[in-house]
Amino acid sequence: MAISTEFKRNFSIIAHIDHGKTTLSDRLLEFTQTISERDKQDQLLDAMDLEREKGITIKSHPVTMKYTAKNGQNYELNLLDTPGHVDFSYEVSRSLAACDGALLIVDAAQGVEAQTLANMHLALEQKLEIIPVINKIDLPSTNLPRVYRQLEEVICIPRDEAILCSAKTGVGIEDILEAVVARIPCPKGYEDNKLRALVFDSVYDAYRGVVSYVRMASGTVSRGMKVKLFATNETYEVKEVGIFTPKMQATQQLNTGDVGYIIANMKSAADVKIGDTYTNLIDPCDAPLDGFKEINPMVFSGVYPVDSSDYEALKAAMGKLQINDAAFSFMGESSVALGFGFRCGFLGLLHMEIIQERLRREFNMDVISTYPSVIYKVTKTDGEELMVDNPSLLPEAQLIQEIREPIVKIFIMIPSEYIGDIMRLVMEKRGEVNQTETIDDTRVMLTCRIPMAEILVDFNDKLKSSTRGYGSMDYEQDGYQAAKLVKMEMVIATEPVDAFSMIVHSNRAEAQGRELAGKLRNVIPRQLFTVAIQACIGGKIIARESISAMKKNVTAKCYGGDVTRKRKLLEKQKEGKKRMKQFGRVNIPQEAFIQVLKSGD
Question: Which of 280, 310, 328 is the last residue in one of the domains?
Protein backbone atom coordinates (compact mmCIF):
# COMPACT_ATOMS: atom_id res chain seq x y z
CA MET A 1 0.00 0.00 0.00
CA ALA A 2 1.37 3.44 -0.98
CA ILE A 3 2.41 5.67 1.91
CA SER A 4 1.00 9.22 2.07
CA THR A 5 3.42 12.02 1.11
CA GLU A 6 3.50 13.40 4.68
CA PHE A 7 5.22 10.17 5.85
CA LYS A 8 7.98 10.27 3.21
CA ARG A 9 11.44 11.70 3.85
CA ASN A 10 14.17 12.29 1.25
CA PHE A 11 17.65 12.85 2.63
CA SER A 12 21.31 12.38 1.72
CA ILE A 13 24.52 11.84 3.66
CA ILE A 14 27.27 14.42 3.08
CA ALA A 15 30.75 14.62 4.60
CA HIS A 16 34.48 14.91 3.99
CA ILE A 17 36.31 11.88 2.53
CA ASP A 18 36.60 8.94 4.98
CA HIS A 19 34.31 10.41 7.64
CA GLY A 20 32.05 7.33 7.41
CA LYS A 21 29.20 8.11 4.98
CA THR A 22 29.05 4.68 3.32
CA THR A 23 29.51 2.78 6.62
CA LEU A 24 26.66 4.80 8.17
CA SER A 25 24.41 4.01 5.20
CA ASP A 26 25.24 0.28 5.70
CA ARG A 27 24.07 0.54 9.35
CA LEU A 28 20.86 2.39 8.38
CA LEU A 29 20.03 -0.35 5.84
CA GLU A 30 20.63 -3.04 8.48
CA PHE A 31 18.62 -1.24 11.19
CA THR A 32 15.61 -0.75 8.89
CA GLN A 33 15.99 -4.38 7.65
CA THR A 34 16.12 -3.16 4.05
CA ILE A 35 18.72 -5.84 3.37
CA SER A 36 18.57 -9.42 4.58
CA GLU A 37 21.26 -11.02 6.76
CA ARG A 38 22.38 -13.01 3.69
CA ASP A 39 23.05 -9.89 1.57
CA LYS A 40 25.01 -8.02 4.24
CA GLN A 41 28.42 -6.72 3.20
CA ASP A 42 30.55 -3.64 3.84
CA GLN A 43 30.22 -0.67 1.45
CA LEU A 44 26.94 -2.14 0.20
CA LEU A 45 25.97 0.95 -1.78
CA ASP A 46 29.38 1.14 -3.52
CA ALA A 47 28.43 -0.98 -6.51
CA MET A 48 31.60 -0.51 -8.60
CA ASP A 49 34.69 -2.67 -8.01
CA LEU A 50 36.67 0.55 -8.37
CA GLU A 51 34.79 2.13 -5.42
CA ARG A 52 35.52 -0.87 -3.20
CA GLU A 53 39.21 -1.01 -4.13
CA LYS A 54 39.88 2.68 -3.63
CA GLY A 55 37.58 2.91 -0.60
CA ILE A 56 35.82 5.97 -2.05
CA THR A 57 32.33 6.68 -3.36
CA ILE A 58 32.29 7.82 -6.98
CA LYS A 59 28.58 7.64 -7.85
CA SER A 60 25.62 8.61 -5.67
CA HIS A 61 23.45 5.61 -4.80
CA PRO A 62 19.71 5.92 -3.98
CA VAL A 63 17.92 3.42 -1.73
CA THR A 64 14.38 3.30 -0.27
CA MET A 65 13.96 2.14 3.35
CA LYS A 66 10.84 1.39 5.40
CA TYR A 67 11.02 2.53 9.04
CA THR A 68 8.55 2.25 11.92
CA ALA A 69 9.18 5.17 14.28
CA LYS A 70 8.89 5.03 18.09
CA ASN A 71 5.41 6.58 17.80
CA GLY A 72 4.30 3.52 15.77
CA GLN A 73 3.97 5.42 12.48
CA ASN A 74 5.39 3.81 9.28
CA TYR A 75 7.70 6.01 7.22
CA GLU A 76 9.30 5.66 3.78
CA LEU A 77 12.87 7.03 3.79
CA ASN A 78 14.76 7.69 0.55
CA LEU A 79 18.50 7.88 1.17
CA LEU A 80 21.25 9.02 -1.22
CA ASP A 81 24.83 8.18 -0.27
CA THR A 82 27.15 10.77 -1.87
CA PRO A 83 30.88 11.02 -2.75
CA GLY A 84 33.23 13.12 -0.59
CA HIS A 85 36.06 13.89 -3.01
CA VAL A 86 36.28 17.41 -4.46
CA ASP A 87 36.32 16.01 -8.04
CA PHE A 88 32.83 14.57 -7.52
CA SER A 89 31.13 17.54 -5.86
CA TYR A 90 28.82 17.81 -8.92
CA GLU A 91 27.47 14.33 -7.95
CA VAL A 92 26.70 15.72 -4.47
CA SER A 93 24.87 18.79 -5.81
CA ARG A 94 22.74 16.61 -8.11
CA SER A 95 21.82 14.25 -5.27
CA LEU A 96 20.93 17.16 -2.97
CA ALA A 97 18.46 18.43 -5.59
CA ALA A 98 16.49 15.20 -5.00
CA CYS A 99 16.40 15.73 -1.20
CA ASP A 100 14.73 17.83 1.49
CA GLY A 101 17.40 17.34 4.15
CA ALA A 102 20.94 16.11 4.76
CA LEU A 103 22.94 14.33 7.45
CA LEU A 104 26.23 16.22 7.82
CA ILE A 105 28.79 13.73 9.17
CA VAL A 106 31.78 15.01 11.15
CA ASP A 107 34.61 12.73 12.29
CA ALA A 108 34.88 12.85 16.13
CA ALA A 109 38.69 12.62 15.93
CA GLN A 110 39.48 14.80 12.87
CA GLY A 111 36.75 17.40 13.29
CA VAL A 112 35.54 19.77 10.57
CA GLU A 113 37.52 19.41 7.30
CA ALA A 114 37.59 21.33 4.00
CA GLN A 115 34.99 19.16 2.22
CA THR A 116 32.71 19.25 5.30
CA LEU A 117 32.35 23.00 4.76
CA ALA A 118 32.07 22.74 0.97
CA ASN A 119 29.31 20.12 1.10
CA MET A 120 27.45 22.02 3.82
CA HIS A 121 27.41 25.13 1.61
CA LEU A 122 26.01 23.02 -1.27
CA ALA A 123 23.21 21.83 1.05
CA LEU A 124 22.46 25.38 2.25
CA GLU A 125 22.25 26.59 -1.39
CA GLN A 126 19.47 24.00 -1.91
CA LYS A 127 17.79 25.25 1.34
CA LEU A 128 17.97 21.81 2.97
CA GLU A 129 17.46 20.98 6.64
CA ILE A 130 20.86 19.94 8.05
CA ILE A 131 21.24 17.38 10.86
CA PRO A 132 24.81 17.27 12.24
CA VAL A 133 26.05 13.78 13.16
CA ILE A 134 29.33 13.25 15.03
CA ASN A 135 30.62 9.84 13.93
CA LYS A 136 33.41 7.53 15.21
CA ILE A 137 32.81 8.28 18.92
CA ASP A 138 34.24 4.81 19.67
CA LEU A 139 37.77 5.92 18.63
CA PRO A 140 40.30 6.48 21.44
CA SER A 141 41.43 9.73 19.75
CA THR A 142 37.91 11.23 19.95
CA ASN A 143 37.89 14.87 21.05
CA LEU A 144 34.23 15.85 21.48
CA PRO A 145 34.72 19.28 23.16
CA ARG A 146 36.86 20.39 20.19
CA VAL A 147 34.33 19.09 17.61
CA TYR A 148 31.44 20.81 19.47
CA ARG A 149 33.41 24.07 19.43
CA GLN A 150 34.11 23.72 15.68
CA LEU A 151 30.43 23.01 14.97
CA GLU A 152 29.41 26.24 16.71
CA GLU A 153 32.26 28.48 15.52
CA VAL A 154 33.00 27.20 11.99
CA ILE A 155 29.64 25.78 10.83
CA CYS A 156 27.39 27.86 13.15
CA ILE A 157 25.24 24.90 14.29
CA PRO A 158 24.31 24.65 18.01
CA ARG A 159 25.96 21.68 19.74
CA ASP A 160 22.58 20.46 21.12
CA GLU A 161 21.48 19.61 17.56
CA ALA A 162 24.36 17.16 17.02
CA ILE A 163 23.73 13.41 17.29
CA LEU A 164 26.54 11.18 18.56
CA CYS A 165 27.02 7.86 16.78
CA SER A 166 29.46 5.15 15.76
CA ALA A 167 28.67 3.77 12.31
CA LYS A 168 31.10 0.93 13.01
CA THR A 169 29.42 -0.37 16.19
CA GLY A 170 25.86 0.79 15.46
CA VAL A 171 25.57 3.20 18.43
CA GLY A 172 23.13 6.08 17.84
CA ILE A 173 21.60 4.73 14.59
CA GLU A 174 18.03 4.82 15.95
CA ASP A 175 18.54 8.42 17.17
CA ILE A 176 19.55 9.40 13.60
CA LEU A 177 16.42 7.80 12.09
CA GLU A 178 14.20 9.49 14.70
CA ALA A 179 15.85 12.85 13.90
CA VAL A 180 15.25 12.27 10.16
CA VAL A 181 11.50 11.75 10.62
CA ALA A 182 11.21 14.58 13.17
CA ARG A 183 13.40 17.30 11.62
CA ILE A 184 13.42 16.77 7.83
CA PRO A 185 10.26 18.12 6.14
CA CYS A 186 8.09 15.90 3.95
CA PRO A 187 8.20 16.49 0.14
CA LYS A 188 6.00 19.34 -1.06
CA GLY A 189 4.06 18.63 -4.24
CA TYR A 190 2.28 21.01 -6.65
CA GLU A 191 -1.40 21.95 -6.35
CA ASP A 192 -2.27 20.85 -9.91
CA ASN A 193 -0.69 17.39 -9.18
CA LYS A 194 0.56 17.07 -12.78
CA LEU A 195 3.47 14.74 -13.46
CA ARG A 196 6.85 16.36 -12.83
CA ALA A 197 9.80 13.97 -12.41
CA LEU A 198 13.34 15.39 -12.16
CA VAL A 199 16.08 13.24 -13.75
CA PHE A 200 19.03 13.45 -11.34
CA ASP A 201 21.06 10.56 -12.78
CA SER A 202 20.89 7.85 -15.43
CA VAL A 203 22.67 4.66 -16.40
CA TYR A 204 22.83 2.59 -19.56
CA ASP A 205 21.69 -1.04 -19.36
CA ALA A 206 22.68 -3.23 -22.32
CA TYR A 207 19.37 -5.15 -22.13
CA ARG A 208 16.85 -2.47 -21.15
CA GLY A 209 18.35 0.70 -22.60
CA VAL A 210 18.48 3.93 -20.58
CA VAL A 211 17.45 3.83 -16.90
CA SER A 212 16.57 7.32 -15.57
CA TYR A 213 16.87 7.96 -11.80
CA VAL A 214 14.08 10.38 -10.88
CA ARG A 215 12.75 12.40 -7.95
CA MET A 216 8.97 12.73 -8.20
CA ALA A 217 8.17 16.40 -7.60
CA SER A 218 4.45 15.85 -8.20
CA GLY A 219 1.94 13.55 -9.87
CA THR A 220 2.07 9.83 -10.66
CA VAL A 221 3.86 7.74 -13.28
CA SER A 222 3.06 4.11 -14.09
CA ARG A 223 3.82 1.50 -16.71
CA GLY A 224 2.29 2.07 -20.17
CA MET A 225 1.99 5.84 -19.68
CA LYS A 226 3.08 8.17 -22.50
CA VAL A 227 5.61 10.75 -21.24
CA LYS A 228 7.76 13.46 -22.78
CA LEU A 229 11.04 15.16 -21.89
CA PHE A 230 11.28 18.96 -22.00
CA ALA A 231 14.88 19.28 -23.28
CA THR A 232 14.44 17.09 -26.38
CA ASN A 233 10.61 17.28 -26.68
CA GLU A 234 10.69 13.56 -27.52
CA THR A 235 7.88 11.26 -26.38
CA TYR A 236 8.29 7.78 -24.90
CA GLU A 237 6.22 4.96 -23.48
CA VAL A 238 7.11 3.94 -19.91
CA LYS A 239 8.10 0.25 -19.81
CA GLU A 240 8.84 -0.03 -16.09
CA VAL A 241 8.96 2.07 -12.92
CA GLY A 242 10.38 1.11 -9.54
CA ILE A 243 12.41 1.90 -6.45
CA PHE A 244 15.87 0.91 -5.17
CA THR A 245 16.06 -1.55 -2.26
CA PRO A 246 19.06 -1.14 -2.99
CA LYS A 247 18.64 -3.34 -6.10
CA MET A 248 16.11 -2.15 -8.68
CA GLN A 249 12.64 -3.37 -7.71
CA ALA A 250 9.68 -2.81 -10.06
CA THR A 251 6.51 -1.26 -8.56
CA GLN A 252 3.04 -0.41 -9.85
CA GLN A 253 3.67 3.35 -9.87
CA LEU A 254 5.75 6.22 -8.45
CA ASN A 255 3.96 9.02 -6.57
CA THR A 256 4.79 12.52 -5.30
CA GLY A 257 7.91 12.50 -3.13
CA ASP A 258 9.21 9.11 -4.33
CA VAL A 259 12.77 8.55 -5.50
CA GLY A 260 13.00 5.75 -8.04
CA TYR A 261 13.66 4.90 -11.67
CA ILE A 262 11.84 5.07 -15.01
CA ILE A 263 12.68 2.82 -17.97
CA ALA A 264 11.16 4.11 -21.20
CA ASN A 265 11.83 2.90 -24.75
CA MET A 266 15.12 4.85 -25.04
CA LYS A 267 17.80 3.14 -27.08
CA SER A 268 20.53 5.77 -27.17
CA ALA A 269 22.67 7.10 -24.35
CA ALA A 270 22.17 10.66 -25.68
CA ASP A 271 18.34 10.56 -25.37
CA VAL A 272 18.14 11.76 -21.76
CA LYS A 273 19.81 14.83 -20.27
CA ILE A 274 20.52 14.96 -16.53
CA GLY A 275 18.47 17.77 -14.96
CA ASP A 276 15.59 17.31 -17.46
CA THR A 277 11.93 16.84 -16.45
CA TYR A 278 9.51 14.02 -17.39
CA THR A 279 5.87 15.06 -17.75
CA ASN A 280 2.64 13.44 -18.96
CA LEU A 281 2.16 13.71 -22.74
CA ILE A 282 -1.65 14.03 -22.50
CA ASP A 283 -1.77 16.48 -19.57
CA PRO A 284 1.68 18.12 -19.41
CA CYS A 285 2.86 20.65 -16.82
CA ASP A 286 3.62 24.20 -18.03
CA ALA A 287 7.37 24.38 -17.39
CA PRO A 288 10.22 22.06 -16.49
CA LEU A 289 11.64 21.91 -12.97
CA ASP A 290 14.81 23.84 -12.18
CA GLY A 291 17.60 21.59 -13.42
CA PHE A 292 21.27 21.77 -12.52
CA LYS A 293 23.82 24.32 -13.56
CA GLU A 294 25.93 23.09 -16.47
CA ILE A 295 29.14 21.43 -15.33
CA ASN A 296 32.12 22.70 -17.27
CA PRO A 297 35.17 20.42 -17.46
CA MET A 298 38.32 22.00 -16.01
CA VAL A 299 41.05 19.55 -17.07
CA PHE A 300 41.64 18.33 -20.63
CA SER A 301 43.65 15.41 -21.92
CA GLY A 302 43.89 13.48 -25.19
CA VAL A 303 42.75 9.85 -24.84
CA TYR A 304 43.81 7.47 -27.62
CA PRO A 305 43.28 3.74 -28.16
CA VAL A 306 46.57 1.80 -27.97
CA ASP A 307 45.32 -0.23 -30.95
CA SER A 308 44.03 2.23 -33.60
CA SER A 309 41.39 -0.30 -34.79
CA ASP A 310 39.60 0.21 -31.40
CA TYR A 311 38.67 3.84 -32.27
CA GLU A 312 34.95 3.15 -32.90
CA ALA A 313 34.66 0.88 -29.85
CA LEU A 314 36.28 3.61 -27.69
CA LYS A 315 33.81 6.18 -29.05
CA ALA A 316 30.84 3.95 -28.13
CA ALA A 317 32.28 3.26 -24.65
CA MET A 318 32.76 6.99 -23.97
CA GLY A 319 29.17 7.67 -25.07
CA LYS A 320 27.89 5.16 -22.50
CA LEU A 321 30.06 6.63 -19.73
CA GLN A 322 28.91 10.16 -20.56
CA ILE A 323 25.25 9.29 -20.00
CA ASN A 324 25.66 9.04 -16.21
CA ASP A 325 28.55 11.46 -15.87
CA ALA A 326 27.48 14.95 -16.94
CA ALA A 327 30.93 16.39 -16.20
CA PHE A 328 32.74 14.17 -18.70
CA SER A 329 32.95 15.46 -22.29
CA PHE A 330 34.79 14.27 -25.39
CA MET A 331 35.33 15.20 -29.05
CA GLY A 332 37.42 13.63 -31.82
CA GLU A 333 41.00 14.73 -32.51
CA SER A 334 44.04 13.28 -34.25
CA SER A 335 47.75 13.27 -33.46
CA VAL A 336 50.70 12.59 -35.77
CA ALA A 337 52.27 10.34 -33.14
CA LEU A 338 49.21 8.61 -31.67
CA GLY A 339 46.71 8.49 -34.57
CA PHE A 340 42.98 9.09 -34.05
CA GLY A 341 41.61 9.65 -30.56
CA PHE A 342 39.55 12.04 -28.42
CA ARG A 343 40.05 15.29 -26.56
CA CYS A 344 38.36 14.65 -23.21
CA GLY A 345 37.31 17.07 -20.47
CA PHE A 346 37.33 16.14 -16.76
CA LEU A 347 36.69 17.90 -13.45
CA GLY A 348 40.06 16.96 -11.99
CA LEU A 349 42.85 14.42 -12.03
CA LEU A 350 41.03 11.82 -9.91
CA HIS A 351 38.01 12.11 -12.23
CA MET A 352 40.34 11.56 -15.21
CA GLU A 353 41.93 8.51 -13.54
CA ILE A 354 38.51 7.01 -12.70
CA ILE A 355 37.18 7.46 -16.28
CA GLN A 356 40.28 5.83 -17.77
CA GLU A 357 40.08 2.95 -15.29
CA ARG A 358 36.37 2.45 -16.06
CA LEU A 359 37.17 2.36 -19.80
CA ARG A 360 39.71 -0.38 -19.11
CA ARG A 361 37.52 -2.44 -16.79
CA GLU A 362 33.96 -2.03 -17.99
CA PHE A 363 34.69 -1.85 -21.74
CA ASN A 364 38.04 -3.68 -21.95
CA MET A 365 39.64 -0.67 -23.72
CA ASP A 366 43.40 -0.21 -23.62
CA VAL A 367 43.97 3.58 -23.71
CA ILE A 368 46.82 6.06 -23.45
CA SER A 369 46.38 9.70 -22.40
CA THR A 370 48.43 12.82 -23.10
CA TYR A 371 49.70 15.29 -20.51
CA PRO A 372 46.70 17.01 -18.82
CA SER A 373 46.10 20.70 -19.55
CA VAL A 374 43.52 23.39 -18.68
CA ILE A 375 41.61 25.92 -20.82
CA TYR A 376 43.61 29.06 -21.58
CA LYS A 377 42.12 32.32 -22.88
CA VAL A 378 44.33 33.68 -25.66
CA THR A 379 44.02 37.23 -27.07
CA LYS A 380 45.66 37.56 -30.51
CA THR A 381 47.30 40.76 -31.76
CA ASP A 382 44.30 41.35 -34.09
CA GLY A 383 41.93 41.32 -31.07
CA GLU A 384 40.51 37.83 -31.68
CA GLU A 385 39.90 35.76 -28.51
CA LEU A 386 40.48 32.01 -28.45
CA MET A 387 39.81 29.28 -25.88
CA VAL A 388 42.74 26.86 -26.07
CA ASP A 389 42.59 23.44 -24.36
CA ASN A 390 45.21 21.75 -26.53
CA PRO A 391 48.84 22.99 -26.85
CA SER A 392 48.81 22.20 -30.59
CA LEU A 393 46.06 24.85 -31.11
CA LEU A 394 48.12 27.67 -29.56
CA PRO A 395 48.95 30.31 -32.23
CA GLU A 396 52.54 31.34 -33.02
CA ALA A 397 54.17 33.49 -30.30
CA GLN A 398 54.32 36.62 -32.52
CA LEU A 399 50.51 36.49 -33.04
CA ILE A 400 49.75 36.38 -29.29
CA GLN A 401 49.09 39.56 -27.33
CA GLU A 402 48.17 37.92 -24.01
CA ILE A 403 47.50 34.49 -22.49
CA ARG A 404 45.27 34.21 -19.41
CA GLU A 405 45.20 31.03 -17.31
CA PRO A 406 42.42 29.74 -15.00
CA ILE A 407 42.92 30.45 -11.29
CA VAL A 408 41.40 28.48 -8.43
CA LYS A 409 40.68 29.57 -4.89
CA ILE A 410 41.88 26.84 -2.53
CA PHE A 411 40.84 26.32 1.07
CA ILE A 412 43.49 24.29 2.90
CA MET A 413 42.94 22.97 6.44
CA ILE A 414 46.12 21.91 8.23
CA PRO A 415 47.53 21.43 11.75
CA SER A 416 49.16 24.77 12.66
CA GLU A 417 52.70 23.33 12.98
CA TYR A 418 52.81 22.70 9.19
CA ILE A 419 51.87 26.25 8.15
CA GLY A 420 55.42 27.14 7.03
CA ASP A 421 55.77 24.03 4.81
CA ILE A 422 52.40 24.60 3.15
CA MET A 423 53.08 28.30 2.53
CA ARG A 424 56.35 27.26 0.84
CA LEU A 425 54.44 24.71 -1.28
CA VAL A 426 51.90 27.38 -2.33
CA MET A 427 54.71 29.83 -3.31
CA GLU A 428 56.46 27.02 -5.22
CA LYS A 429 53.27 26.55 -7.23
CA ARG A 430 53.11 30.28 -8.17
CA GLY A 431 50.31 30.84 -5.66
CA GLU A 432 49.63 33.41 -2.96
CA VAL A 433 48.13 33.04 0.52
CA ASN A 434 45.34 35.61 0.96
CA GLN A 435 43.99 34.72 4.37
CA THR A 436 44.91 32.65 7.42
CA GLU A 437 42.11 31.71 9.79
CA THR A 438 42.47 29.90 13.10
CA ILE A 439 39.86 27.14 13.44
CA ASP A 440 40.83 25.95 16.91
CA ASP A 441 43.95 25.68 19.07
CA THR A 442 45.55 23.09 16.75
CA ARG A 443 44.37 23.84 13.20
CA VAL A 444 44.31 26.70 10.71
CA MET A 445 42.62 27.29 7.36
CA LEU A 446 44.57 28.99 4.56
CA THR A 447 42.74 30.64 1.68
CA CYS A 448 45.01 30.77 -1.39
CA ARG A 449 44.86 31.62 -5.09
CA ILE A 450 46.83 29.26 -7.35
CA PRO A 451 46.91 28.73 -11.13
CA MET A 452 44.88 25.61 -11.86
CA ALA A 453 47.59 24.06 -14.03
CA GLU A 454 49.85 23.96 -10.95
CA ILE A 455 47.51 21.85 -8.80
CA LEU A 456 46.68 19.30 -11.49
CA VAL A 457 49.31 16.68 -11.02
CA ASP A 458 50.94 16.47 -7.61
CA PHE A 459 49.63 19.28 -5.37
CA ASN A 460 47.32 17.07 -3.29
CA ASP A 461 50.02 14.40 -2.87
CA LYS A 462 52.53 16.99 -1.68
CA LEU A 463 49.95 18.51 0.68
CA LYS A 464 49.27 15.08 2.23
CA SER A 465 52.95 14.16 2.56
CA SER A 466 53.92 17.57 4.00
CA THR A 467 51.21 17.32 6.69
CA ARG A 468 51.56 13.55 7.33
CA GLY A 469 48.08 13.00 5.94
CA TYR A 470 46.34 15.57 8.19
CA GLY A 471 45.91 18.30 5.54
CA SER A 472 42.73 18.59 3.48
CA MET A 473 41.73 20.90 0.65
CA ASP A 474 38.78 22.07 -1.36
CA TYR A 475 38.82 24.37 -4.37
CA GLU A 476 36.55 26.46 -6.57
CA GLN A 477 37.13 28.40 -9.79
CA ASP A 478 38.16 32.02 -9.37
CA GLY A 479 38.40 33.55 -12.84
CA TYR A 480 41.39 34.06 -15.14
CA GLN A 481 44.70 35.89 -14.80
CA ALA A 482 47.34 36.96 -17.35
CA ALA A 483 50.64 35.05 -17.13
CA LYS A 484 53.92 34.62 -19.06
CA LEU A 485 53.08 31.29 -20.67
CA VAL A 486 54.86 29.59 -23.56
CA LYS A 487 54.37 26.46 -25.63
CA MET A 488 57.13 23.91 -25.09
CA GLU A 489 57.64 21.28 -27.79
CA MET A 490 59.74 18.13 -27.69
CA VAL A 491 61.75 17.63 -30.88
CA ILE A 492 63.16 14.15 -31.47
CA ALA A 493 65.71 13.83 -34.30
CA THR A 494 64.56 17.21 -35.72
CA GLU A 495 60.86 16.17 -35.75
CA PRO A 496 58.40 17.73 -33.24
CA VAL A 497 56.25 15.15 -31.37
CA ASP A 498 52.87 16.76 -30.63
CA ALA A 499 51.92 14.23 -27.91
CA PHE A 500 54.58 15.72 -25.60
CA SER A 501 53.76 19.41 -26.23
CA MET A 502 52.63 21.43 -23.22
CA ILE A 503 51.89 25.02 -22.19
CA VAL A 504 54.19 26.02 -19.32
CA HIS A 505 55.20 29.14 -17.40
CA SER A 506 58.36 30.67 -18.92
CA ASN A 507 60.18 30.49 -15.54
CA ARG A 508 59.56 26.74 -15.30
CA ALA A 509 60.09 25.79 -18.94
CA GLU A 510 63.79 24.89 -18.67
CA ALA A 511 63.39 22.61 -15.62
CA GLN A 512 60.38 20.83 -17.15
CA GLY A 513 62.17 20.49 -20.49
CA ARG A 514 65.21 18.86 -18.85
CA GLU A 515 63.01 16.49 -16.86
CA LEU A 516 60.98 15.34 -19.88
CA ALA A 517 64.05 15.00 -22.12
CA GLY A 518 65.70 12.84 -19.41
CA LYS A 519 62.63 10.59 -19.25
CA LEU A 520 62.50 10.20 -23.02
CA ARG A 521 66.20 9.33 -23.19
CA ASN A 522 65.51 6.37 -20.91
CA VAL A 523 62.55 4.98 -22.88
CA ILE A 524 63.41 5.55 -26.57
CA PRO A 525 65.42 2.62 -27.98
CA ARG A 526 68.88 3.30 -29.45
CA GLN A 527 69.16 3.76 -33.23
CA LEU A 528 72.07 3.24 -35.64
CA PHE A 529 72.74 6.99 -35.43
CA THR A 530 72.87 9.52 -32.57
CA VAL A 531 69.39 10.80 -31.67
CA ALA A 532 69.00 14.31 -30.24
CA ILE A 533 66.07 14.93 -27.87
CA GLN A 534 65.44 18.67 -27.55
CA ALA A 535 62.97 20.80 -25.63
CA CYS A 536 62.21 23.91 -27.71
CA ILE A 537 60.29 27.15 -27.28
CA GLY A 538 59.59 28.89 -30.58
CA GLY A 539 62.66 27.38 -32.26
CA LYS A 540 64.98 28.09 -29.29
CA ILE A 541 66.46 24.97 -27.68
CA ILE A 542 66.24 25.11 -23.87
CA ALA A 543 67.23 21.52 -22.96
CA ARG A 544 68.89 18.62 -24.75
CA GLU A 545 69.66 14.96 -24.21
CA SER A 546 71.33 12.56 -26.67
CA ILE A 547 70.89 8.84 -27.25
CA SER A 548 74.21 7.45 -28.48
CA ALA A 549 74.29 5.33 -31.64
CA MET A 550 74.39 1.56 -31.66
CA LYS A 551 77.60 0.36 -33.22
CA LYS A 552 77.69 -2.64 -35.54
CA ASN A 553 81.07 -4.36 -35.57
CA VAL A 554 81.89 -4.07 -39.32
CA THR A 555 85.49 -5.22 -38.76
CA ALA A 556 84.48 -8.56 -37.24
CA LYS A 557 85.39 -10.46 -40.43
CA CYS A 558 88.94 -8.97 -40.52
CA TYR A 559 91.42 -11.28 -38.85
CA GLY A 560 94.79 -9.50 -38.60
CA GLY A 561 96.23 -8.17 -41.88
CA ASP A 562 96.66 -4.54 -42.89
CA VAL A 563 95.02 -1.97 -40.54
CA THR A 564 94.05 0.25 -43.52
CA ARG A 565 91.42 -2.32 -44.51
CA LYS A 566 89.76 -1.93 -41.11
CA ARG A 567 89.94 1.88 -41.38
CA LYS A 568 88.35 1.73 -44.83
CA LEU A 569 85.40 -0.29 -43.46
CA LEU A 570 84.96 2.07 -40.48
CA GLU A 571 85.03 5.14 -42.77
CA LYS A 572 82.42 3.51 -45.01
CA GLN A 573 80.22 2.86 -41.94
CA LYS A 574 80.67 6.48 -40.83
CA GLU A 575 79.49 7.74 -44.24
CA GLY A 576 76.49 5.43 -44.13
CA LYS A 577 75.50 6.71 -40.66
CA LYS A 578 75.81 10.32 -41.85
CA ARG A 579 73.52 9.55 -44.79
CA MET A 580 71.08 7.67 -42.51
CA LYS A 581 70.98 10.65 -40.15
CA GLN A 582 69.83 12.87 -43.03
CA PHE A 583 66.89 10.62 -43.91
CA GLY A 584 66.52 8.63 -40.69
CA ARG A 585 63.23 8.69 -38.79
CA VAL A 586 63.04 7.63 -35.16
CA ASN A 587 60.11 5.30 -34.64
CA ILE A 588 59.06 5.89 -31.05
CA PRO A 589 57.41 2.69 -29.80
CA GLN A 590 53.95 2.91 -28.22
CA GLU A 591 55.45 1.65 -24.91
CA ALA A 592 57.62 4.78 -24.73
CA PHE A 593 54.54 7.04 -24.98
CA ILE A 594 52.71 4.93 -22.43
CA GLN A 595 55.62 5.02 -19.96
CA VAL A 596 56.19 8.78 -20.19
CA LEU A 597 52.54 9.84 -20.35
CA LYS A 598 51.22 7.36 -17.80
CA SER A 599 53.63 8.59 -15.15
CA GLY A 600 52.18 12.04 -15.86
CA ASP A 601 54.38 13.55 -13.18
Answer: 280
